[in-house]
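User: Sorry, folds how?
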Amino acid sequence: MLEELSRTGVFPLADLTERMRLVADLGFDSLMLQELEVNIGKRIPGFRTEEIFSPDLTVERLVALVDPHLTPEPAAGAPLPQQTRADWDAASACADDFPEVRQFEERLSAIAGSGADFPYFRVHQGNIRDTTVIDGRPYLSFGSYNYLGLSGHPAVNEAVHQAVDRYGTSVSASRVLSGERELTVRLERALADFLGVPDCLALVSGHATNVTAIGHLVDARDLVVHDALAHDSILQGCALSGAARRPFPHNDIGGLEDALRRNRSRFRRVLIAVEGAYSMDGDLVDLPAVIELKRRYGALLMVDEAHSIGTVGERGRGVGEFFGVDRSGVDLWMGTLSKTFASCGGYLGGSARMVRWLRHTLPGFVYSVGLTPANAAAALAATELILAEPHRVAALRRNAELFLGLAAAAGLATGSSAHTPIVPCVLGDSARTLRVADRLFDRGVIADPIFHPAVEEGLARLRFFVTSEHREDDIRRTVAVLAEEVAAAGG
């Protein structure tokens, strides 16, 4: 069991002590605890405990929980027990009967029973910029990633129309074979220039870009050290790779260094995975400090710029521009095309040699169809507009600062948000958060309610995504309405 603790927690076996708490002292998150339970169960059949997710679970207590499941090995020559149908749960053979499905349905029932409108999967009747229309009613929207208002921009729409007229709606093949088009080649060149890197590779999905990249860069001989608030796509990439995974507390450079100091020599490669801007908290990575540690400990560094590219930096060129770092200090610049670039897909930027290798070997690229002509054209046109119309980034920054300043002045809890267009309003209780979101919707304002398990229990929040298109009076009205409803919802 101690071996599994050491392996799953990426913590030296010799340093484990009985009084260590798995969450507070060893840094286990919920996915690691689940993995630990499964792995112990493989070695000690029948082991399972609800206490595995207790924040106070210690090494000593876990040993006590495992002990009743230990059975002596059969004597030499004794027949091995035969597996019968009773040795597995019948519910495992039907997805409808999975316990995860039941738990999901319980969460849905809790929302439905609250009396609030269901806040997800609302159907919008047109483009979403600063406003949107649902069921014929206009709303102020703070729930869209259309940060620069380029989705729906006439020049972007026209580029898409021309691309479809010329190339059709699909490239109908992997780009390695017959799916290559001039539009995508031009897009990759434009993105590389925008990022300030030698080369870039565009893929059809932002989420899949992280999954396939991490799954390709590292394997079971390696370690991924990532921020505790890393996006699901980073965690899924870790799972695909088979690499050990070690989260460090959010934006805690000391915690990152401790993980590297303890573990660097134990693995072939170590990949540090961080985000440029964190979409739950609205804060930036301390990129210069991370680059310094990457160099000191001989690690690889991947920066996910899904929410920072186009929104951060004087010209919107991301956290690299914001901090003025040498672009070669980051091995892999990742980003999505679905936000400021008004399209759909992802990209990987870096050295020419590395990108050439990825272009010929990355599974999520080689074995996938290429970007549609429409998506390539939209992203290319958006990139050109960001360069040609720098006032958009300036307006976004001005609006974000106004919203954050007004929220702080109103006494709203905005956490560590700074220098990004993402402003959370942390309310703590999930039911209270849902009530406030519902009241805002009634008053014509859309903001996303975020509950556990997307965030820790007790940190439920509303998220406001500010755009360059929001008007000052609408921002002022929204913050005033928000403050009223938060006060009315009580503590």
